[in-house]
Design brief:
With 486 residues, the chain is mostly beta strands. Helices cover 0% and strands 49% of the residues. It has no helices and 38 strands.
Length: 486
């Protein structure tokens, strides 16, 4: 049997596993803590600052947010050469004695920030990329041939200066193998299988199951999720199965996807009066609870010239999102439905999209005075998260054509004496006045190598990435903005 000799797998230690630079100072600000009340500032230098990459700086919750000093440092390089074992066929795939260059994708990412870079190795396995100096990077190396070589993830790497990882030996890892079937024992051909590193959430490259449903991936000892899904356009449930790879021990892991028999669903999109069909509407069908499987499934398509769509999906409860184009006069719609085996194809018939509505309001300061030139952004909640924008006129008035469901409305004043203010509004209910607050001051100076960084874009976010405000530094690198509810 082909898999008998896979237990000969072994591992080795590489320079990547030892990579760590202590450094001095606090490049990138505080360490990232997703459970804290820290604040993240994303700095985007002007294009002419070629040595300065866009990067994040994190302020601790106890910092003086009205007097921040943010140091933006020139980029540093991370380089190395990725090597792996060749494979010598001997009735099975076993490790050879020589190390060869490996084609792999290299990613260096500081979790929770925009500080990152990625590159593919050259033909000789070498790579070089640049990142902003900071602490707490995660480095991942994902070879193209994951059935022959393991991918590697190393977390908590401090990169404060140029870092040469020299030779990175991926070793040969340990085999994770098995068979993908449905509830009737039928092998699943051409399913995509990959490992996800549990702690970092990083995915390795996918392999494809053969005609008998077999797969093989090699991995280093660690905790993973084995992820199984269909190729694009194929209605297979997506499953994640825990997979712990132990030292010197192969892992056999068969996966039963459950029920894979599909049902046809169809419908037609029209305007609200039902007098006009609508083409090019995105149709996103997301499973709520599937029958006969623990998996989940999302299928996307779009309507044709007659407003029609048709797809095969799995039996169960579903949520359908019907999303018109950004510049259409129709809004988006969500509905729930259920499909079952054994019956006729599910026909959702004519689905009328609602008309957009006109939403108007007046922006006032705390004293009731109208504010001219305030930037207004309405962020659609759900669907494709469209953003609709305008500015207030001399009377503080604005008007937007919006979908008839709740949006997150953000109003940014033209000066820094008032806060960027947000509210969840329902455009169908209207709002006569939108009063800005004074909020909390976020101010400071952005410097690079001791000099103020002029005209850099500063984005203020919380630790979930939610954008609260944007501003531009002045000629000396100074900035100031007020924020409500940070």
């Amino acid at each position: 049997m082909k898999y008998l000799l896979f237990f000969l797998g072994f591992t080795s230690c590489s320079s990547l596993e030892k990579a760590e630079l202590a450094g001095s100072g606090s490049p990138g600000g505080a360490d990232f803590d997703p459970n804290s009340n820290q604040m993240r500032l994303d700095i985007h230098p002007q294009d002419q600052n070629i040595d300065l990459l866009s990067q994040s700086w994190i302020a601790d919750g106890d910092a003086d947010w009205g007097d921040l000093t943010i140091e933006v440092n020139p980029s540093v390089s991370v380089s190395g050469q990725v090597l792996g074992y060749t494979v010598q066929p001997l009735n099975a795939e076993v490790p050879g004695g020589d190390r060869n260059p490996v084609t792999a994708n290299i990613t260096v990412q500081r979790p929770g920030t925009i500080s990152s870079s990625a590159v593919t190795t050259d033909t000789d396995g070498t790579f070089s990329l640049e990142v902003p100096p900071a602490r707490g990077y995660t480095i991942s190396i994902s070879p193209d041939d994951t059935h022959l070589l393991p991918f590697q993830v190393v977390q908590g790497v401090d990169i404060t200066d140029n870092l040469d990882l020299e030779e990175i030996d991926l070793g040969y890892g340990l085999p994770v193998y098995g068979r993908i079937t449905n509830d009737e024992g039928t092998p699943i051909h051409n399913a995509l299988v990959n490992l996800k590193h549990v702690e970092s959430g990083i995915d390795g490259a996918s392999v494809v199951t053969d005609s008998r449903g077999h797969y093989l991936i090699r991995a280093l000892p660690d905790d993973y999720l084995l992820c199984v899904k269909g190729s694009p356009g194929v209605a297979l449930p997506f499953l994640e199965v825990p997979a712990t790879v132990n030292v010197d021990q192969a892992l056999e892991l068969d996966v039963n996807l459950g029920n894979t028999e599909t049902v046809s669903v169809q419908g037609q999109l029209t305007n609200s009066e039902g007098t006009q069909t609508i083409r090019d509407v995105k149709v996103r069908l997301s499973s709520d609870l599937l029958d006969g499987t623990d998996g989940r499934l999302v299928i996307e398509t779009e309507t044709d010239r007659d407003g029609l769509f048709s797809r095969n999906i799995l039996p169960g409860s579903w949520i359908g999102e019907f999303i018109s184009a950004y510049d259409d006069i129709w809004g988006s719609l969500e509905l729930t439905f259920r499909v079952s085996l054994g019956g006729p194809p599910e026909d959702l018939e004519a689905i009328p999209l609602p008309d957009n509505v006109t939403f108007s309001s007046t922006v006032l300061d705390p004293n009731g005075n109208p504010i001219e030139g305030a930037a207004v952004n309405a962020h659609e909640m759900g669907f494709d998260s469209y953003i609709y924008s305008t500015t207030t006129n001399s009377l503080g008035r604005f008007s937007l054509e919006l979908p008839p469901h709740p949006v997150a409305l953000a109003v940014a004043p033209p000066t820094a004496d008032l806060a960027v203010t947000r509210k969840i509004v329902n455009p169908t209910e209207g709002m006569s006045e939108f009063i800005l607050s004074t909020g909390d001051l976020v101010a400071g100076k952005v410097i690079s190598e001791g000099t103020g960084l002029e005209f850099a874009l500063v984005e203020v976010r919380d630790m979930t990435g939610q954008l609260y405000a944007t501003t531009i530094t002045g000629p000396e690198g100074d900035f100031a903005v007020r924020i409500e509810g940070l």
